[in-house]
Amino acid sequence: MTAHHVAHNREFWDADADDYQAAHGPALDPDGEMAWGVWRLPESELGILGDVTGLDVLELGCGAAQWSIQLARSGARPVGLDLSGRQLTHAQGAIDARALSVPLILADGERVPVRDECFDVVFCDHGVMGFCDPAVTVREASRVLRPGGLLAFSIGTPLLHATYDERRERQTKKLRSPMFGRREWISEGGTVDYLILTGEWISLFRANGLVIEDLLELRPPKGATTSYEYVPYRWARRWPAEQIWRVRKEPRR
Fold this sequence. Notes:
The chain has helices at 4-24, 43-46, 66-73, 85-97, 128-131, 134-144, 158-162, 198-207, 233-238, and strands at residues 35-36, 41-42, 56-60, 77-82, 104-106, 119-125, 145-156, 164-165, 170-171, 184-186, 192-194, 210-218, 242-249. By secondary structure, it is of the alpha/beta class. Strand 1 (35-36) and strand 2 form a beta hairpin.
């Protein structure tokens, strides 16, 4: 049975995919360089995924597969997964236009239809970890990772949400809502979003055999611009709006 938030988000993304790609496709350019978050911080500088040559990589919430296309060109064997068939239509068109081979899976991040321990890297740039229940997605990511494999993902910070002023529709300098108790809600954008605190992330990683390697809080460079109405630039220069977790599945003993 499909969870209510999965069905809601699938309906949203199927309806919004064309507009989303029109608005953000140029910034997500699959012929450009791999970059993280709404401010497009280069993977070449952050080094989150590292050398992917010859690795089996699963992108959770691939959209139009911009990351997966770039990874294929970097020597990886990527697979893109998304719950939206319309997003995957965009992805397949982009893959075909570049004469690449990137398998695509229509599924949600809480039920990944692949066998255990078949990927070296599982990652997402926003996407699945914010739109699905982390208690389930972390377990699934660990299941499909080989021992020693990497899980990396970007997501909004609790502070981003705690300072959001619903009347002004933007972040402010003041705390506006509790950080405890709010785990799932329909965002201003219309999706069902999830937010958990740092301690719960750590508990989920430990419960699923994942060891933390790094937690990066992202800051836009001076003069940065973005196609997303995600957070004001000046706010994001002062406080972390996005973060990247980098954790690794424990090797088999």
